[in-house]
Amino acid sequence: MGGDSMIVLAGQPGSFTVPAEYPYERVTNELRRRIRTGIYKPGEKMPSRAQVAAEFGVSDIVVGTAMRTLKAEGLTESLTGIGTFVADPLPND
Question: Is the pTM of this model over 0.85?
Answer without folding.
Answer: no
